[in-house]
Amino acid sequence: MKDLIDTRAEQDFQWAQTRAFLSRLMHVFNPGEEELLPFEEAKALIKPQGEVYSGIAAVPVEKIVGSEGRYRDFNRHFLPRKEYLRHRWTSIDRTRYQDITLPPVRLYEMGGVYFVRDGNHRVSVARSMGQLEIDAEITSLQSKITMDPGTSKEELKAAVIAYEKKTFYASSRYPQVLGIDDLDFSEPGRYDTIREHIEVHKYYLNQHESVEIDWGSALVSWHENVYRPMVLAIREEKLLYFFPGRTEGDLYLFLVRHWDELKHRLKRDVPIGDATKDFKTKVGAGAGSLAGRFFHDLAEKLKYFIK
Q1: Do residue 159 and residue 74 come from a single domain?
Q2: Residue 72 domain-assigned?
């Protein structure tokens, strides 16, 4: 009987590992779609407000989408990728055939999905063998951003950016004050930076006023005298060409930083047009030709075939 159970467990692992390999081939051009979400990265994006112990409950295994420390060892469906997982994986699988009850796994709940704190192999065996639920000890992290089991890291980042934009627009009344919606970013956290820029602009405006300028007036002044001129310079120099996937808002922040560094290095004021041309010269030298960018992108795709 023991030999039969051992053989079945080995066969189960081999089949699970084969499925993981086939899944990797199917996602060779979109590898992010089959990756587990790293808990720390997801937490850094979502920025939960607190945590609470939620006790023990049966959790749908399909809602377990990430891991605190083993996210490279398993794919998005918790199929095992690495050979060194075999011993632990098969030992847990054998307990299933022997009807041995294992202790609950430990999970974080965040945004409606779950991340493994302890019990990655148990989750992998359960999901590989078609188990629908698993007993878990749950710690819930409070989040205003929700996810579903299919959410990728890029989709999560996009959801966070959308939430930050909505929050910033609501609190600043940006579209109502300016009558436009022209502020987009490709990375989280940048709306907070824009708020700081407007606050600094407001501070300097008020240095020359006897009556304090309100937020709305400062926002209009910042947009007309700082943001819009820099965006026009970015368009004039066609800087977005050098930054595929970025936005004018991103380049505004890049250019502000470069402009500030340039003024400090030269120890004098620098017109924004000169700063933009200097920035273009530097990024243009690093970006290479269009053909170079094409072959770089091609190499990025092909590397997944030869890992």
Answers
A1: no
A2: yes
Residue 41's domain comprises 2-141
Do 85 and 168 fall within a single domain?
A: no
Transcribe the chain into DSSP letters: -HHHHHHHHHHHHHHHHHHHHHHHHHTTT-GGGGBPEEHHHHHHHH--S-EEEEEEEEEEGGGEEEESS-TTTBBTT--B--GGGHHHHHHHHHHHHTTPPPPPEEEEEETTEEEEEE-HHHHHHHHHTT--EEEEEEEEE--SS---TT--HHHHHHHHHHHHHHHHHHHH-HHHHHS------SSTTHHHHHHHHHHHHHHHHHTT-SSPPPHHHHHHHHIIIIIHHHHHHHHHTTGGGGSTT--HHHHHHHHHHHHHHHHHHHTS---HHHHHHHHHHHHHHHH--HHHHHHHHHHHHHTTT--
Q: pLDDT tens across 153-194, in order?
A: 899 999 999 999 999 999 999 999 999 999 999 999 999 999
Q: Residues 177, 133: one domain?
A: no
